[in-house]
Amino acid sequence: MTLLTKLNDDMKAAMKNKDKESLQVIRMLKASLQNEKINLGRDLTEEEEMTVMSREMKQRRDSLAEFEENGRDDLAKKTEKEIAVVEKYLPAQLTQEDLREIVNDAIKQTGASSSQEFGKVMGVVMPKVKGKADGKQVNAIVKEQLNQN
Question: Which of 14, 79, 126, 142 would staple 64 via disulfide (CB 3.0–4.6 Å)?
Answer without folding.
Answer: 79
